[in-house]
TrEMBL record:
<dbReference type="InterPro" id="IPR051178">
    <property type="entry name" value="TfdA_dioxygenase"/>
</dbReference>
<protein>
    <submittedName>
        <fullName>Clavaminate synthase-like protein</fullName>
    </submittedName>
</protein>
<dbReference type="InterPro" id="IPR042098">
    <property type="entry name" value="TauD-like_sf"/>
</dbReference>
<keyword id="KW-0408">Iron</keyword>
<keyword id="KW-0223">Dioxygenase</keyword>
<dbReference type="InterPro" id="IPR003819">
    <property type="entry name" value="TauD/TfdA-like"/>
</dbReference>
<dbReference type="GO" id="GO:0051213">
    <property type="term" value="F:dioxygenase activity"/>
</dbReference>
<dbReference type="Pfam" id="PF02668">
    <property type="entry name" value="TauD"/>
</dbReference>
<comment type="similarity">
    <text>Belongs to the TfdA dioxygenase family.</text>
</comment>
<feature type="domain" description="TauD/TfdA-like">
    <location>
        <begin position="25"/>
        <end position="331"/>
    </location>
</feature>
<keyword id="KW-0479">Metal-binding</keyword>
<keyword id="KW-0560">Oxidoreductase</keyword>
<dbReference type="GO" id="GO:0046872">
    <property type="term" value="F:metal ion binding"/>
</dbReference>
Amino acid sequence: MSALDDTMAIEIASLPVPATADASKLAGFGIEVKGINPSELTPEPLKRIEQLPYNHDVLLFRDAFDPTSESYGRGNNKTEKTKKSILHPDLKTIPRQPQVQLIRYGTVYNHEGLLEAMLKHPSHTTFHKMQVTTLYGIKVPNGDQQICRYDEGTGDELEVPLGTTVFVSSKVMFDLLPPELKSLAVRSKVKYVHPYVLIAPTHAISAGLSIEMEGLELPLDQLPPWEESRRRTLPLFWRNPVTGSLHFEAHPCGAAELLVDPLSEGTNHEGVLYPDGVHITDLGTRPAIAPSLVYPHDWNEHDLVVFHNRRILHSVVGAFKPHQVRAFHQCNLAASDDPAGPTPEDVKKYA
């Protein structure tokens, strides 16, 4: 196949939202990219596509690759080597392309140098960033719609396709916060220490936004070697460099600490939480995963979905029968820069 002409038009179309969703809240969230094949990109179309996730968060390419292609993206091959990581049982590395992981559910035979791979489907009963993640659907099972129950007393339910990946906007998470929590949000930073290893023995709550308070986290002295001086401290909300919007991007389960800055001198303290700063471990985000704010992607084989991990949260949902197989390639694209947090202007506006 010939390379794509740089002048070829890129068409975009909104992803269809299900009847359960509030279309006004998901306006602009998720697009299908047409008229271009990601395996044939030349520099100019690539520059245009690189900007799309900043405005639309999730990109879908239908029939993205020739199944016989030998060209894949780059990512990260370290997870499978970290035996204690909660991600370790769910990922199998493609031998000839170690940046690509084979994931999801069922037994796959003779695939890309893997004679047999038993894939495990994660759930909140066993547990519930890269800048960009790509998911490519190789084998997608057919089956009836399923009901996702939030199961935390609200009665919320969401009808979803079998084996869906659900996405929520972390911008909406900020927008829905009341003023007192917005003030807290723009002053907060989050601190980690081997998050996927720390929480490996734990169970997530049913909504997936935190872990059960069972005391099952690994003791710090059982983690892989680490130094206090090298622990990452990141903004709780990350600023979109293109739109200026703020997005919740702490790992909901893996965060170890929240550090809240005090209000600046002379700021009105009335109704403000922790005006003098505090060191805490919780900030609620549940309103933003209400059924009306969730986009559940209905996968087809050879769909390629590219999503911006600094703009959204995502989760796999559902359960499978033993004979069903759901096989995907996943490749994480690392960032060359750290995320930017709220600006002084943001803090002045919301704090």
